[in-house]
Amino acid sequence: MFNLVLVFLFTVLVAFFVSLPVIWALKVFRIGQVIREECPASHRKKAGTPTMGGVAIILVVTLLVLILINVDLSIKYASLLFMFLGFAVLGFTDDYLKIRKRQNRGLSGLQKIIMQIIFASVFAGVLVYLGHAEGLTGLLKFFRLDAPYLYFVFVAFVIIGSSNAVNLTDGLDGLAAGTLAIAFIAFGLIAFRLQHVNEAIIAFVAAGAVFSFLKFNFYPAEVFMGDVGSLALGALLAGVAILLHEELLLVVIGGVFVAEASSVILQVSSFKLFKHRIFRMTPLHHHFELVGVSERTIVLSFYLAAFLLAVIGFFVYRFI
Q1: SS3 state of residue 116
Q2: Which residue in 226, 228, 224 sits closest to 88, CA to CA?
């Protein structure tokens, strides 16, 4: 465990020094955030804040995973890294198009989902080929998701769902980064208890990189993560859970992300079916903003919720 703590601390240090030149470049080239018109009015002052800071996180996680894990000898971890970078490239492209067009519309929804399916399918296909589904237990095995084709679809669905849920959460200063750090630490501890050393290293590296980014991203944010960070990290979080065969724990440990995504689904469904809005605005954090809760209070409250869910997840993982 001491070695994993060192990995975390070393990653925090590396990420800090990598973030400095990245943020400098974003400021010099004026790569600023474009704010959606339908966002709360308080967000308009954030227009122009440097974005795509997630590039620093991607660089650090990729570099340290390649150094600390022998990816060349394991197609499983190589495919995880490929998926992670694929989602990063997708997010980078989306961010770039938004900045270039000077509007909050990058890739179309169809383009995003097609690319997400492709990258997630590569990882899912490798796991099916390796027979990873045979290790399923509990509810997933009961519902026969260990069948290769069903497992393939299930893995792709979990990855895409997690990636987009984290992306939706990335709407307030430090919100996604803080909750991701907590979730990665929780899965890292579970991986350690299960003696999955490589998965624990990946989780603690990701946690360290995201935690370090909070220095620049917490309210008031000096830089935003961007889709390049949120989409990739959401996919990586799901990938770690899948490798541990703790897929259902994503619903618990990633409960904040689930709540954010669910609020959007409920809002859209309610309006289309009944012409009624359940929330003032979605994702959920915007609802709390519009009822008068300060941004800092919302973020800290969500951190607390994420921490409590992580603790619950750590103690119930054996029973799911």
Answers
A1: helix
A2: 228
Instruction: Report how far residue 130's alpha carbon sits from residue 143's, in angstroms, rounded to the nearest whole number.
Output: 21
Instruction: Check: CB of residue 236 under 8 Å from CB of residue 207.
Output: no
Closest-CA residue to 51 (of 101, 112, 5, 92): 92
205: closest CA among 169, 233, 238?
233
Please provide the DSSP assignment of 262-301 as one string: HHHHHHHHHHHHHS--SSSSSSHHHHHHHTT--HHHHHHH
Distance CA 253, CA 313 (A): 5
Residue type, position 16, single letter? F
C-alpha distances in Å from residue 239, one per residue of 233, 243, 251? 10, 6, 14
Closest to 107 in 3D by CA, of 286, 224, 228, 217: 228
204, 188 Cβ separation under 8 angstroms: yes
DSSP letter string, 27-80: HHTT-BPPPPTTS-GGGGGGTT-B--THHHHHHHHHHHHHHHS-GGG-HHHHHH
pTM recorded for the entire structure: 0.96
Read off the DSSP letter of residue 318.
G
Q: What separation in angstroms does the CA of 230 have from each of 73, 164, 245? A: 28, 8, 23
Query: CA–CA separation, 29 vs 247, rounded Å?
Result: 40
Return d(Cα 55, Cα 91) in angstroms, integer: 10
2 vs 176, more confident: 176
Q: What pLDDT was estimated at residue 39?
A: 73
Q: Which domain holds residue 95?
A: 2-319
Tell me the average pLDDT of the chain.
93
Q: What are 13-22's pLDDT values in tens digits?
A: 999 999 999 9
Alpha-carbon gap, residue 32 to 109, rounded angstroms = 22
Number of domains forming the structure of the chain: 1
Torsion sign across C-alpha atoms 211, 216, 220, 224: negative
Q: How far is CA 116 from the centre of its chain?
A: 14
d(CA 79, CA 123): 5
The answer to whether residue 180 scores a pLDDT higher than 90 is: yes
